[in-house]
Write a structure and sequence with these properties.
By secondary structure, this protein is of the alpha/beta class. It has 29 helices and 24 strands. Strand 22, helix 28 and strand 23 form a beta-alpha-beta unit. The longest helix has about 45 residues. The N and C termini lie far apart (about 160 Å).
Length: about 750
């Protein structure tokens, strides 16, 4: 009995040696599945043969050997090919041995192999696992199956088996299957881990080599241990040149802030042993400075001590430049290079905070160039841009670097000066600023003469927030401009009241036309020689529901500014046309009404003179029933679109009159080219006429010139008989003024026509 048990243990030892040989096969041939299975089958088959060479023999041809263990494991780990090879070798050798138990022996080969393959299949399907418990149950099943097969042995041999070795065999071989299965599984797991590690290492190495980031490893002394291809591309050094070199010999400028920053990062990594992120200026092999972002991680040994640092580096030079460009575009004016409104707002908030801490004031200047539009329109936008650039340079040279100078758009500039202790300082700055702006500007081949209107408000005296400061300065600037420009004006509370009133007027004006609040008054234009009234000028009035009758001088500039003048002008034309039809049919068949037009109308895309002509046609009214009055400024602009409108009027026989002649600049060639019909001498000249006066001489000169050009002359603002007499003597054709009548509503005007 003891001898048999020793033989069983020897068989188990033989089986366990199988694990070493299997490990070699797995190590060298794991990647080749077929080769691995063939070699595994041959190995398991050979072990079967060795076990049967020195078996426990119970009777003639009845032997006990470890083939059931080997072949069941072969089915589990060797796969179909390996299991078949092992079974063929083991079964073949058992057949060669022969004896009474040969068929039972062959059955053991087949059943053990089948059970191993079945277990393998269940593991593949994830129905079972290879672990201690399930391997033990599997081994028990194999051994129970063999005991059932043993019933087919000769009775004497079966009894001897059951009495002497059945129980030791069951437990020893079951344990052998369990241990051998665990060993082989562990060998495979180790190989899988090894291959996975190699694959991961290979992928990581490939990734680090081809990553768009520079991957660099440093030792404790900050010398390069690893240097990938991207690091070569970024810094210009090859790996051979870089490895072993200190950072300051490669990418750091000696004594620079970056060297100090990097040292601080490494000190932090030594102490914290975590990760650090930093941004640095580095240098390349050719001396270029570049901006880099670094991601640094500690590498620790088994004891947790830092042994190296792994760094990933990205060259962000282009991105930084793009960000800088975007930031500058968002904060600076592209034409002048001055701060824009966004930057000015930020600086104003900062200066307000400083003023609060230091108990000082902030002066906010709003500067608008006088007559810039005239220069821009007359000389072109290129000259206008050059002028704005020169203005910006002048402002920079005149003010301190700590003062904020901004362009808000067009010809509007803002200056913000902090640290103000008294208004005397502001007076000096403002006076000097206005004088400097009045000096001629050199635009290359020509000089430009401009001036500036400057509005000034103070924080915290006038307002407590940036929005209110801007509003106040804007109102003060307009007050300076309305006073003639070339001056500065402080903000006063009355300006705010005026601005509020103006805004209310604008809002009311937007609904006035729809609510039929406008009316036309008519002032006669008298033939000075005969005293007959064949003409009148239509003058608009606004019957405001709360403020009463408002004259044009108060609301027409606002209507022009808001472009409402286009619709208002259309209404005046239609209303005057309707009145002309009535008076022509009732009083004078050749009666003519003059209507005032605004330069804004001629520049608007919404104005179409042909609509007016079509309206006259619908009303069956000839063109000479209407006279259109234009300003000298409109005449001087003489752009193609304006000229075409005037030509259309001429072709329709609508006459054109130059209003307030002598107060602006007129071109004699334009008077002739555009076929002007009337010149109206401005009231300012008529007021001062007296015998031998300059004003009389001017009026006489205008009348003579007009008659030479075949133009008729209308004198405005005649209030005395003496003025009338002198104008008649000078040859003036028509007169208009309070001497004859003030402007009257249509019904009252008709009384004049009945006289």
């Amino acid at each position: 009995m003891t001898h048999m048990t020793d033989d069983l243990i020897f068989s188990v030892t033989l089986l366990l040696s199988l694990s070493l040989l299997y490990g070699l096969i797995v190590h060298y041939f794991y990647a080749s599945i077929v080769t691995k299975q063939v070699l595994t089958g041959a190995l398991f088959g050979g072990i079967c043969v060795l076990g049967m060479v020195s078996p426990i023999e119970l009777a003639n041809g009845v032997i006990i050997d470890p083939r059931s263990v080997v072949l069941s494991i072969a089915g589990l780990f060797g796969g179909p090919i390996g299991a078949v090879i092992a079974a063929s070798i083991g079964g073949g050798y058992r057949l060669v041995l022969g004896g009474d138990g040969v068929y039972v022996g062959l059955s053991i080969v087949i059943v053990s192999t089948f059970l191993g393959l079945a277990y393998r299949h269940c593991v593949k399907k994830d129905w079972l696992k290879i672990n201690v418990l399930q391997l033990f149950l599997f081994g028990s099943l194999v051994q129970l199956s063999l005991l059932l097969l043993a019933t087919q042995l000769p009775e004497t041999a079966y009894k001897q088996l059951m009495q002497s070795i059945a129980i030791p065999r069951f437990f020893i071989f079951t344990i052998a299957i369990t241990l051998l299965g665990l060993l082989l599984k562990n060998i495979e797991n180790l190989k899988i881990t090894e291959l996975s590690y190699k694959e991961i290492s290979s992928r990581l190495s490939h990734h680090l080599h081809n990553t768009p980031l520079a991957a660099i490893t440093w030792d404790r002394n900050f010398n390069v241990m690893q240097w990938n291809k991207t690091a070569e591309d970024i810094f210009g050094y090859t790996a051979d040149e870089a490895i072993g070199k200190h950072a300051k010999d490669l990418i750091l400028e000696t004594g620079s802030k970056s060297e100090h920053d990097v040292n601080q990062v490494f000190i932090a990594l030594w102490e914290q042993q975590g990760g650090e992120r930093s941004s640095n200026e580095n240098v390349t092999k050719d001396g270029r400075k570049i901006s880099c972002e670094w991601y640094n991680t500690s590498i620790l040994d088994e004891e947790g001590k830092l042994i190296a640092v792994a760094s990933l580096c990205e060259d962000v030079t282009s991105r930084k430049k793009s960000e800088q460009i975007i930031w500058e575009q968002a904060h600076y004016d592209s034409l002048t290079g001055l701060a824009n409104r966004k930057m000015a707002d930020e600086h104003l908030e900062q200066k307000i905070k400083v003023a609060d801490r230091s108990n000082t004031s902030v002066a906010f200047f709003f500067l608008d160039l006088d007559r810039f539009k005239d220069i821009n329109d007359a000389r072109g936008h290129d000259i206008g841009d050059k002028l704005l650039i020169q203005v910006a340079k002048r402002l920079r040279s005149h003010l301190r670097e700590i003062d904020t100078i901004a362009r808000f758009g067009g010809d509007e500039f803002v200056i913000i000066i902090g640290g103000i202790d008294s208004t005397d300082q502001v007076d000096l700055i403002a006076n000097d600023l206005v004088k400097k702006m009045a000096e001629p500007l050199n635009l290359g081949k020509e000089l430009a003469y401009i001036s500036a209107s400057v509005g000034i408000t103070l924080y915290p005296q006038d307002a407590s927030d940036p929005i209110a400061l801007l509003r106040n300065a804007d109102q003060a600037m307009y007050a300076a401009k309305n006073s003639g420009g070339d001056r500065f004006q402080y903000f006063t509370p009355s300006m705010q009241k005026s601005a509020v009133s103006r805004m209310a007027l604008i809002n009311d004006l937007r609904t006035a036309l729809a609510e039929n609040q406008f009316k036309l008054y008519y002032q006669p234009i008298v033939n000075l020689m005969s005293g007959a009234i064949h003409k009148s000028e239509a003058l608009i009035r606004w019957q405001h529901p709360e403020r009463g009758l408002i004259g044009p001088i108060e609301f027409i500039p606002i209507a022009e500014e808001t472009k409402l003048i286009v619709d208002i002008g259309d209404w005046v034309f239609h209303e005057a046309s309707r009145q002309a039809v009535r008076w022509r049919s009732s009083f004078q068949p050749n009666f003519q009404i003059s209507i005032n037009t605004s330069p804004v109308q001629y520049k608007s895309d919404n104005f179409n003179a042909r609509d007016w002509l079509e309206h006259l046609h619908v009303m069956k009214l000839p063109g000479d029933a209407i006279t259109v009055e234009i300003t000298e400024g409109t005449l001087m602009e003489s752009r193609a679109s304006i000229d075409q409108v005037l030509f259309d009027f001429r072709d329709a026989n609508i006459q054109v009159s130059i209003d307030d002649f002598g107060t602006g600049y007129s071109s004699l060639s334009s008077l002739k080219k555009l076929d002007i019909d009337y010149i109206k001498i401005d009231k300012s000249f008529v007021d001062g006429i007296a015998p031998n006066s300059n004003d009389l001489a001017l009026c006489e000169a205008v009348i003579v010139m007009a008659h030479k050009l075949d133009l008729k002359v209308i004198a405005e603002g005649i209030e005395t008989e003496n003025q009338k007499r002198l104008l008649i003597a000078a040859g003036c054709d028509f007169g208009q003024g309070y001497l004859f009548s003030k402007p009257l509503p249509a019904m009252e005007f008709e009384k004049l026509l009945n006289i």
